[in-house]
Design brief:
Elements: H1 6-10, H2 18-32, H3 41-57, H4 60-69, H5 91-94, H6 96-103, E1 106-109, E2 128-134, H7 136-141, E3 143-154, E4 170-171, E5 180-185, E6 188-193, E7 202-203, E8 216-227, E9 236-239, E10 255-261, E11 268-270, E12 273-281, H8 282-287, E13 289-294, E14 300-305, E15 314-317, E16 333-340, H9 347-360, H10 368-385
Parallel strand pairs: 2-10, 12-16
Antiparallel strand pairs: 1-6, 3-8, 4-7, 5-6, 9-10, 11-12, 13-14, 15-16
Length: 386
């Protein structure tokens, strides 16, 4: 019987690229794999043909020889499975990556031992995430919080073994305790995870009624959590072993608490520093004085305002900011002055302000920033006229 063209076998054009060839092979291998078609001789034959075609076309040198001489390029160098020519398969290096991608825990060899070897441990429990919102004050002081987390815990009835009466597991009869089984398909052997024990090598004879053999059950756990002083938005706290219980006595996962520091109505945080915009009466800004401001720690601080203070001027209160996480240091607090223009003036107040303007003679000598700005404007207009 004449050999079928390798390109035709994989249903690709002769100019197809490596990625296209690999994709076509994966599609056929998935479709005709013996584990998916038990007892189907035709499917097994197509699977072998796809393997032969891919073994040649994936290799640049073999492909070049095939394109020039066809199947004759590989005749006399050893038959299928004999290690010579194009049909001497090295599944451990050539096909293992594709089998792993398609079928998960597969190993394939040219009739030798599998790559996996050894039984698989029971799966560790899943990690859990809990989102918690805290106020800026809580982030400043730290706090103790009580949370309720839906999770899985070890079954008390079977002590996490999954077996009734906490009986010890026995070796799996399908794989004889190795956790893996082999199936010979013509000239090669495929090794895969045991479908009966899922790779653990052991099974329970009688499942626990309370957990149906899982060794764990759903439960809402109550935990006390310490929020340290100085936490920032996005801080992650790890509680080891407080995640889901593992299957059949396997170690539990961890619980990760992600903190969200809520915005504050007065303070704005930048790292360990606190910023606060404080309105200053026009008279206090002009004549000087002092104001009292709140601090994030709940206290008060007095700030001296020098005469002639302008909007935007900042005053630093050293050490009045947020604590730096897990240190004894504190950031600073910055007070930004916002000079407030008076509104709803009485008639007398308006007259007093008018007298103030007259006393200056319209020179703006009391407003240096304004005087400097309009001096520049005058220069600009003069330049335009010239």
């Amino acid at each position: 019987m004449a050999n079928r063209d390798f390109y035709e076998t994989l249903d690709v054009e002769r100019g197809a690229g490596a990625d296209e060839i690999k994709k076509a092979y994966r599609k056929l291998a998935m479709k005709y794999h013996p584990d998916r078609n038990p007892g189907d001789a035709a499917a097994e034959q197509k699977f072998k043909e796809a393997n032969e075609a891919y073994d040649v076309l994936k290799d640049d040198q073999k492909r070049a020889a095939y394109d020039r001489f066809g199947h004759a390029a590989f005749e006399g160098g050893g038959g299928p499975g004999q290690g010579g020519g194009a049909r001497g398969f090295d599944f451990a290096s050539g096909f293992a990556d594709i089998f792993d991608e398609m079928f998960g825990d597969f190993g394939a060899t040219g009739g030798g031992a599998g790559r996996g070897g050894g039984r698989r441990r029971a799966a560790r429990g899943s990690d859990l995430r809990y989102n918690m919102a805290v106020s800026l004050e809580d982030a400043y002081r730290g706090k103790q919080a009580r949370i309720r987390v839906p999770t899985s815990i070890g079954c008390e009835s079977c002590k996490g073994t999954g077996a009734e009466g906490a009986a010890a597991p026995v070796n799996c009869a399908t794989c004889d305790g190795s956790g893996r089984v082999r199936a010979t398909q013509g000239f090669f052997t495929i090794e895969r995870t045991c479908p009966n024990c899922h790779g653990s090598g052991q099974v329970i004879e009688k499942a626990c009624k309370d957990c149906n053999g899982a060794g764990r059950r759903h439960h809402e756990k109550t935990l006390d959590v310490t929020i340290p002083a100085g936490v920032e938005d996005g801080t992650r706290i790890r509680l080891s072993g407080e995640g889901e219980a593992g299957m059949r006595g396997a170690p539990p996962g961890d619980l990760y608490i992600f903190l969200n520091v809520k915005p504050h109505r007065i303070f704005h945080r930048e790292g360990a520093d606190i910023h606060c915009r404080v309105p200053i009466p026009m008279t206090t800004a002009a004549l000087g004085g002092s104001i009292e401001v709140p601090t994030v720690g709940g206290g008060r601080a007095r700030v001296t305002i020098p005469e002639g203070t302008q909007t935007g001027r900042q005053f630093r209160l050293k050490g009045k900011g947020m604590p730096v996480l897990r240190t004894t240091q504190h950031g600073d607090m910055y007070i930004e002055a916002v000079v407030e223009t008076p509104v709803n003036l009485s008639r007398k107040q308006k007259e007093m302000l008018a007298d103030f303007v007259k006393a200056d003679g319209g020179k703006r000598s009391n407003s240096p920033e304004s005087e400097g700005f309009f001096a520049k404007v005058k220069e600009l207009w003069d330049d335009l006229r010239d």
